[in-house]
Every structure is written in structure tokens, then in C-alpha cells.
Amino acid sequence: MWTDIFIQILSGVSRGMILFVVASGLTLIFGVLRIPNFAHGSFYMLAAFVAYAVTHAVGGSNLGFAASLLMAPLILGVFGLVFEFMLLRRIAGRLHLYQLIMTFAMTLIIADGIKMIWGGAYRSVGYPPLLSGSVEIFGRPFPTYYLLVIAVGLIIAGLLSLLMERTRFGRTVSAAVVDPEMVGALGVNVPRLYTLVFGLGAALAGLGGALAAPVGSVSLGIGDSIIIESFAVVIIGGSGSIPGALAAALIIGVVQSLGIMVAPRLAIAFVFIALCVVLLVRPQGLLGRRV
Amino acid sequence: MLHLNARSKAGLYTLLLAVLAIFPLIVEESNLFLTVDVLIAALFAMSYNIVLGQTGLLSFGHAAFYGLGAYTVALLQMHLGWPIEVGIVVAPLVTGAFALAIGFFTVRVSGMYFAMLTLAFSQLIFAMVAGWYSFTGGDNGAPVMPPDYLFDTTNFYYLALGVVTACICFIRLLVGSPFGAALAAIRENPERARFIGVDIRFYQLAAFTISGALTGIAGALQAAFHQMAFPSLLFWPQSAEPVLMTLAGGIQTFFGPAIGAALFTILNFFVASYTDYPLFVFGVVVLVLVLFLPDGIVGTLFSKERRYRPGAPKDGAELAVSANAPKSPKGAPS
């Protein structure tokens, strides 16, 4: 009984880690830059298809998986840079409503774009051979791949925290969000900074998509639930806080994983209950700094 | 730009209503079918604009009220055997109650947080409706059986026209009343509105509730017309529809959302029948609208009706400005 629960929690943690990698990108875009990027889930979905294409092009081997883990973030990062530079930048300074609508339009374009390139069928990627086995934890088998996901999530959390808290780049970004005019007057190219951070956020969605591709099926619609969960992570974690996003993603992953055990049909509702409770009790989020 | 005085406006509306009244005589049935969809979408968008355009609240969860309105009609018939006419009357009460409950929690936060919280609540309701198979039929939807006379498209058209016209007249009275003026004051400057003694949360909650109730009527008509209530009516992309329609027509205009609704419904109909990639076409249309027609069609034509310039959001304005928004995100006011 208790081992079952432990294994369930552990798989919840790995689920939560994929969510964290995706949502950490949204934390930069929505939490830091304050651009309500509705296309973030679509970035993730597109990345999963890119991972599928790359893996198959290379031949489904360990190398193919490694290549997909590299190419998906790269391609999505460039996609994000171009999207911000060509479109979002043009409506900067207008109401956020317009950014919301523009990114929503991008979700529609990506959905049909994927259909044009790959068709509407379900695809599967499969675990890389090296990680396709399972390890024994308390006498129960646990997929090795999930351990890799957990490791990657922790590495990303560490690197991003360092980037935002300890580097000049991170501090310039934080300052530029609070007072863009002042930072601009100090000689920083603020629009370029925004483009770079947006690209980084999109690349993280790309990494999340590539990580998730071997776990479930790759299909149209996988972006729909993760976008809602990602927004929930950013809000529960506290806007702009990477550790907050990590905590929130793990909470959501574990709550869902345990929820499936208790009440399968209502598992999805637990996320929203958590979100509503946090927003009412602590509107700035778990680790949000500003009140 | 065009500018109409009150008298020519009244004339225009009378003419419009007269044309709509004889519409079944001049168009063929398939187009009349589409017109009913336009009427329903117009009511949805205009109800929605009570919160977005009039009060300055960006709700991203109105699909919940639309879907709940539809399910009210379906479930009352399925479980209690009540006719759909009763369902259409009860629907706004049910959705209004839900809007009151959701609004009670959501109006505490502002800007993008309000949008995300309304989205979360609507997804919660979606999850419940889609998951509760024994009560709602889950993914299979809930069937609606209209009475014989409403199977006729012309008859349904007149029912929809009557209901929608009545609701629009109600919205017009609301907007023109002191209550509507208080909502506009909150939109323009919440700080000042509070200062002159307007209870902001109360008014926002009232606007949200009324908007939710009217949206429920649109949903009820939709279910009655298409003889089915589906969970997808509550799914979040549906929440984007009234936002897009309102934006396309013009947020700061009264009839703009209806024009936007007509545009989108008709576009949807033709795009879906002529291309395999309707979403792509839609996405591009929306991008073009946002880039080149930010005030919407009606808003651009009648530029005098515009009440503020979207290029320069005011500091206190709550309209879609996040709680801690920078004065201008990129230091480059457009």
C-alpha cells in the first residue's frame, strides 16, 4: 500500500518535472515579461512533433533521442525569437488583451500548421533504447526514463535560478520589467532583451515537448491541457519565481498522480481547486515577492 | 469618419429590425440557418461586452456560462421533462447564479489575474460537466428535443430574433442607466471611481452576473437550435470566441460585438466549407485584425465613438493590464 503510494508520488514528480520545464518558460514569458502567451502550449505541442520527426530521421536510436532533445529547443527557440520580433513587438505597449489575442491566433496557426505537415494522426516516439528499461524501487519497477526526466528538471531549475538571480543578464531583465525606460536610458537595448527572454522561454517549452514525446502519444491537442496547467503553475508559484514554479509544478504533478488513484474522473479538477485556493489565500503566489 | 446623430441611429436600427423581420421571406433556408447562428453569437458577444467593453474586465471564462445555459435546457428536459421554452427562461437564472458565485471570488483580483482565474473556474466547470457521465452524458453530450413547431427554421428564427432583440434592448437600457455609467467609471479609472464612492467590487460583480445570465440565454438558444448540448461549449477555446468577436467589431462600441459575431460566424461557415485548414485562415485573420484594426471594424468606422486610445493605456485602467504592469512594457509607446 505505502510502496504503491510512494511509486505513484514518484511518477507524479516526473510528470511534474515535465510540467515544470514547460512552465518555467511561461514563468519567464508571463511571470517576468508579463506577456500572456497563450501559444505556449502550442510551442510544446510543436516541439513534440519536431522531436518525433528528428528521432525518426536519425533512426529511433539513443542518438536520435539526444538529437531531438537538442533540436526541439533550438527550433522552438528560434521560432519564439521570430514570433516576438516580427509580431509581438509591433503591439508592445498596447493593452495586454491584444497580446493575448495575438498569441491565441498563433495557437490556431500552429494547430493547423502541424496538420499540414504531419497530418492529424497520433504518433508515438518511444523511449530511447538506453532508457527503455526500469529500475527497482522498493521492489517495484519504475521506468528509468522517468528518472532522466526528474534529473533534467532539477538541472533546468538550478540553471534558471542561477541565471535569474546571480547573473547580470537576469538582474537586467528584472530591472527592465519594473522600469523599462530607466533601464533603456542606462544603455540597455530593452526590446532586444525582451526578444531574447521570449526566445529562451519558447526553447524551454521546446525542451519540455521533446522530453514528453516518448512518454505519451504525440498528437494534436496535447497543448490544450498543458497550457492551462502551465498558467496554473506560474500563478500558484508566484509570478517570475523559478523555485515557486518548481514547487507548484511538483504539487500539481503529485496531486494529479494521487488524484487518479482516488477519483480518476475528478483528477483534473484538483489542479483548479489548488489554483483557486492559492489565488484567494495568497494572490501573489507561493513564492511571489510582490504583493 | 462616419458620425451618426441620435435620430439617424434610431432610423437605422428600425430599418435593421424591419429587414430582419422579413428576412425569412428573402433568403433561402440554409442562409436563414446561418442567420440564427449569427443572432445567437451576437447575443453571446454583446452580453460578453458588458464585462469587457463596459466594465473593463477581461473574462476568459465565459464559455462556462454559454455551456451551462445550453446544459440547463438539455438537463431540465432530460431529467425533469421540462419543455425547452421553460429551459430558456430558467437558463439565465442558473448561469446568473454560477456567475455570481464565480464572480464573488474572481473580482478580488484584477487584470490578467482576473482573466486567468475566470479561465480556471470555467475549466473546473468544464471538467465537471465532461466527467459526470451519469448526469450530463459526458463526452456524448446531452440531447435536446425541441417541440414540433420549432423544428421549422423560420419559426426558430423568429423565436431567436425576439429573444435576442429583447436582450439587446435590455443591455442598451443597462448601459445608458446610472448603473452603466458607474461601470464605465470603473473602466476608465478605478481609483477615482472608488474615491467618489463607487463600490467597485459590487458593481463588477453585478456586471459579471448580468453578463453571465445573458450569456446563458445565448447558450440555451444554441442548444435548442442545434438540439444538443456538448461539453466543447464549455471548453476554453470557446471562451476566446466572444473576445475575438468583440475585438473584431470594436470593444468600445455598442453594436460592434454583434458585427464581429456576424463576421466570425459567416467566415467560419465559408472557411470551413472551402478549406481543410480553417484554423490557419482564422489565425491569420485575427493577426491582421490585431495588427491593423485594433479598434475593430465599427470602432474604426465611427472613430468618434471611441472613448480612449488603445495605444496609451492609462495607469489605473484595469482593462487587461496586469496587477504589476510596467507603464509601457518595452519603453516604446506605439
TrEMBL record, chain A:
**What UniProt keywords are attached to this protein's entry?**
Amino-acid transport, Cell membrane, Membrane, Transmembrane, Transmembrane helix, Transport
GO MF term set = transmembrane transporter activity
Q: Which GO terms describe its cellular component?
A: plasma membrane
Quote the CDD domains the UniProt record gives: TM_PBP1_LivH_like
Q: Which residues cross the membrane?
A: 6-30, 42-59, 65-88, 100-122, 142-163, 193-214, 226-255, 262-281
Q: How does it sit in the membrane?
A: Multi-pass membrane protein
Q: Which domain of life is it from?
A: Bacteria
Where mainly located?
membrane
Q: What is this protein called?
A: Branched-chain amino acid ABC transporter permease
Q: Which organism is it from?
A: Pikeienuella piscinae
TrEMBL record, chain B:
Recorded GO MF terms: branched-chain amino acid transmembrane transporter activity
Q: What cellular component GO annotations does this protein have?
A: plasma membrane
Alphabetized UniProt keyword annotations: Cell membrane, Membrane, Transmembrane, Transmembrane helix
Q: How does it sit in the membrane?
A: Multi-pass membrane protein
Spans through the membrane: 12-27, 33-51, 63-80, 86-107, 114-135, 155-184, 205-225, 245-267, 279-302
Asked if the keyword Lipid metabolism belongs to this entry, the reply reads no
Q: By what name is this protein known?
A: Branched-chain amino acid ABC transporter permease
